[in-house]
TrEMBL record:
Span of the signal peptide: none
Single GO MF annotation: DNA binding
InterPro entries referenced in this protein's UniProt entry, alphabetically: WH-like_DNA-bd_sf, WH_DNA-bd_sf
Biased composition (Basic and acidic residues): 185-194
Keyword line: DNA-binding
Name of the protein in question: Winged helix DNA-binding protein
Top-level taxon of origin: Bacteria
Region named Disordered: 179-205
Length: 316
């Protein structure tokens, strides 16, 4: 089977120079594959090597973007990754981190400055989508010669990402289920959630869990993709956890979303940016971070459930 050729006109900076990307991975075959794809896309490979060469070695020029394959990480690596996250943010670069579901919570906790793209157990196609996001940020480029099959595959992937963005844009515009007001009080962590003036109480968490089970039951009889709605599934999961006074890790929330983890992470990031979710640092362990409903989302969910109070036990 011939190797896919993902070719682009070379993206450049304001001076017309090729965009520089550094690639760091401990798996040589993966590092070579990513470098080949980036070169085909017209990027210039700035540096490439092992994770240790980046995280533990002497400071190196990062270039315009950094791709990091980090399937597992220890405490020392987390500290180094946090420094890299801050450095990338300060430099105005872009960061893509490929990791595993096992290491996701630790990696997520380290990345709160650079708006990094996080890929979980990524396929080559998912890496191409991530590269496409860099291309989109660079601008001034266009696809050139690709096979019909490759073009269709990339188009489908791009459409999926665009569909997520459009749906999230609708949420941020203040749809009927989430009438979010900018006047709501600032979120200060789950322990500070309070019932706003006139806000009805949230339903019993057991009823919300029942709704979640009912939604999951559909997958036994129908194609799960027919009902994929990660935003709502995550909102329900966080609503139940809020009533149970439980913290929700990012990996747990990805599972609740019912979509691939990389897709769920895109939703989570957008939901944080639109003010529905909050990233909550663990006060006792700064290496941990959780996701919770924002104060505004708690208010919206409470009012939503008040409207449907009668049929709560019916499938959502």
């Amino acid at each position: 089977m011939p190797q896919a050729d993902f070719s682009y006109d070379a993206p450049g900076d304001a001076a017309g120079l090729p965009v520089s990307v550094s690639v760091f991975a401990d798996r040589p075959y993966l590092r070579d594959q990513v470098c080949d794809d980036l070169r085909s896309a017209g990027f210039r490979i700035g540096r490439n090597g092992s994770i240790a060469a980046l995280l533990k070695g002497d400071p190196v020029a990062l270039g315009d973007a950094v791709l990091l394959d980090c399937p597992d990480i220890d405490a020392e690596g987390m500290a180094a990754l946090s420094r890299l996250d801050m450095r990338v943010a300060q430099a105005g670069s872009q960061l893509i981190v490929s990791t595993s579901l096992v290491a996701l919570d630790d990696v997520f906790a380290c990345l709160d400055q650079s708006r990094a793209q996080i890929l979980v157990d990524a396929s080559r196609a998912e890496r191409i989508v991530a590269v496409g996001r860099i291309l989109g940020a660079v601008g001034g480029h266009r696809l050139r010669e690709m096979s019909k099959e490759d073009r269709v595959a990339l188009l489908h992937l791009s459409q999926q990402v665009d569909a997520i963005a459009r749906q999230l844009d609708n949420l941020s515009d203040g749809g009927p289920a989430f009438a979010l007001s900018d006047n709501d009080s600032e979120y200060r962590g789950p322990e500070h959630h309070r019932q706003g003036a006139g806000r009805p109480p949230l339903p019993d968490p057991s009823l919300v869990r029942q709704m979640i089970r009912q939604r999951q039951t559909r997958a036994q009889y129908f194609d799960a993709e027919l009902f994929a709605d990660p935003a709502w599934d995550m909102l329900l999961d966080l609503t139940a956890a809020h009533g149970e006074h439980k913290r929700v890790s990012v990996s747990s929330l990805c599972i609740a979303a019912g979509v691939p983890p990389t897709t769920a992470l895109r939703w989570i990031r957008q939901m944080v940016e639109t003010g529905l979710f909050d990233r909550v640092e663990d006060a006792r362990d700064r290496r941990r971070a959780y996701i919770s409903l924002s104060e505004r989302a708690v208010d919206a969910m409470a009012r939503y459930f008040a409207v449907i109070a009668g049929p709560v036990a019916v499938a959502a």
